[in-house]
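Below is a concrete protein record.
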Amino acid sequence: MLRVVTIIVLGVLILAGAAVLGFYAYYGIAANNAKASLGGEAPILEANGIQYRDLNKNGVMDQYENPDAPVMERVQDVLSQMSLEEKAGMMFINMIGTLPDGSLQERPLPSNPFTFMIPTNSEMIVRRHMNHFNIMQSHDPAAMAAWYNSVQNLAERTRLGIPITIASDPRHGFPSSEAASMFAGDFSAWPEPIGLAATRDTLLVEEFGNIARQEYLAVGIRLALHPMLDLATEPRWSRVYGTFGEDADLSASMGRAYVRGLQGDTVGTESVATMSKHFPGGGPQDDGWEAHFSYGKDQVYPGNKFDMHVSPFVKGAMAANTAQIMVSYAVGVGITEDGVGFAFSPSIVTGLLRKELGFEGVISTDWAVLSSKRLLGFTMLESPGWGVEDLAPIDRAEIALAAGVDIFGGESNPEWIVELVNSGRVQEARLDSSVSRLLRDKFLLGLFDDPYVDEGAADRIVGSAPFMEAGRIAQRKSIVLLKNGKEDGSSVLPLGPDERIFVQNVDSSLASRYATVVSNPTEATVALLRVHAPYEPPRGGGILEGLFHQGDLDFKGAELDEILSVTRSLPTIVDIYLDRPAVIPEIAESAVAVLANFGASDEVILDAVFGRFDPSGRLPFELPSSMDAVRAQLEDVPYDSEDPLFPFGFGLSYSRTDTVGSAQITQIPESVQ
């Protein structure tokens, strides 16, 4: 029997090996075939005293190649030369694979299942005529810059030489399991946007945008898929960490500063264009469930605050001339016609955003609204094309085009658009209006004239000492002191160097630089615990679901008992990372001091605890007193839970005994109005 099993196993392994070899051979041949259709590099020529890149390699300075020509004249010229297939390709943006050595990703990587879900670099750029991409992986900055130059060179050799626009989700935060944010890696490390809001410092936020701009430029990222202008009025929502909190005026002020830092006053050759999201505001999710999943598709307005959720886009992103806007997945209950998601709604995309609000920039769908993403028979991402789930992807695309979107996120299928035009269902002129906007941004960013970056400068710029220090200062300014004192009213913080400290989830070797660290709580005079805001296990809605923190906000069971076993046995300082609000009455009562952070290093927390700076942050949302209070509040209304444990704007400091803020927006300093 054992011999039979062995023979079967060996047979399976041989077949699997043969399949893998065949798979890799197929991809290699496909890549070579795609590249075979390419022309040469664009020579730099001169005409009438003007140097230009001969992108279509015809020996003549076409108007779109003339760096001195007006932008819209250049747009119309290249548009007139584009084929239907090239126009369709421009209207898609998807993730793209990158390799740690900076070379093109032309085969899937066994170590990275993500690469099996997307076409290779040359397939998308050469065969599918795509030139907008979202990079997910973080490699050494020099390798990122080298890869970027390689894909630009590939694009340069296509028929018209249309350059690539590389986009990125936020990548300046701390390690997180969230699907829509990446940790900083080699980039400077800052608090999440919710922490920037806690600083109430618009100059700091603009400085962040400017530093992120310089780091992005160094590796070729020219489109930021952020900021988020959603209002965190529903505390259970998993995306709170990416917002500027629950107050509309604060969010608008932060958003304006953020966009200005990345773009400048207008989009130019030194800008990173911003795609502000998720219009018309993705915060008021029904019971807080995430709109990526079918059970969370509904966005509700029981307090009739729809206009309030739109206002940060108008007063924030649009006031700062954001180049692009992404539309939310959600179905606006009582808002969108026929119960469709916002991206399929003409009244939202064209009626409200384009006509009523006068937005002239690019409008993008959120990712994968046309088709689900599958790998080896498993659904990795259920398509959030809510309201059109029963339709084929091509039919969904037709509806979205009719609604008014310009580009489809998370998709690589231009053939759908080609078929719609060839069948007469969509007029090519409809494509021209969208492609014109997309081309305009490429010209404004200077990509047609010089898309390349200095590979040698990337390591010097990304994560430079001044940028890292600016991030540390922002971390410090975002820390909120929620409690500081014993029952007799005496303060506990800051600590002195004579303490014997027991730490959990803190680097003990680092802590030993501040005081004596002990491994047994019974030997300690004080404890320092770092904890993460709680969340519920996945509901079973797919593989991606585990990457979102959803559900109840209170600590339960063994997790709570473990914390209280320390806080009730010796004086304990609890630092809690708030990627969304938390319900912490037991912890707040039993701990002698409580700090809130929104992305901060151990060093910054220890600096706060030992008085190396005075905490000044203020809560960008309220912390409810109970889950009953959370369930009773209205999803679209800010700071409305009954008797919050800590109100919006709350924050203590060492230098004063009263709070530095309150729940009233009128008490926010003039600088953020």
